[in-house]
Specification:
Layout lengths: L1 H10 L1 H11 L2 H5 L4 H8 L2 H13 L7 H26 L1
C-alpha cells in the first residue's frame, strides 16, 4: 500500500492525500482535527503529506531530520505557486 501511495504522490500529492484519507487513519493520527488536513489538501498538499508521513515514521512525532523533509515539501509547494504566478505574468 505504501508503494502505491508513493506512486500517487509522484503523480499528484492531492491524489495521494485523498487515498491516505480514504484507506488509512494516518491523517487522523497525525493531526488533531480535520481542519488542518482539509486546508492542507487545497493549500499545501506536499507539506501535509510529508508531515503525516514523517510523523508516522518518527514514532508519532516529527523531530530532527524529519523536519528537513517537511521543509523541502513546503518549498516544493511554494515553488508550485511560483510557477503558476510566473506563467500568469508572462502570458
Amino acid at each position: 500500500m505504501a508503494c502505491l501511495i508513493a506512486l500517487f504522490a509522484l503523480i499528484s500529492p492531492r491524489l495521494a492525500l485523498l487515498f491516505v484519507a480514504i484507506f488509512s487513519d494516518l491523517l487522523g493520527r497525525a493531526f488533531d482535527s480535520w481542519l488542518i488536513p482539509f486546508l492542507g489538501f487545497f493549500l499545501l498538499p506536499w507539506t501535509t503529506l510529508a508531515y503525516a508521513c514523517m510523523w508516522s515514521l518518527g514514532g508519532d512525532a516529527v523531530s530532527g531530520f524529519e523536519w528537513f523533509i517537511v521543509i523541502l515539501a513546503f518549498l516544493a509547494d511554494l515553488a508550485g505557486y511560483g510557477l503558476i504566478g510566473n506563467r500568469r505574468s508572462s502570458g
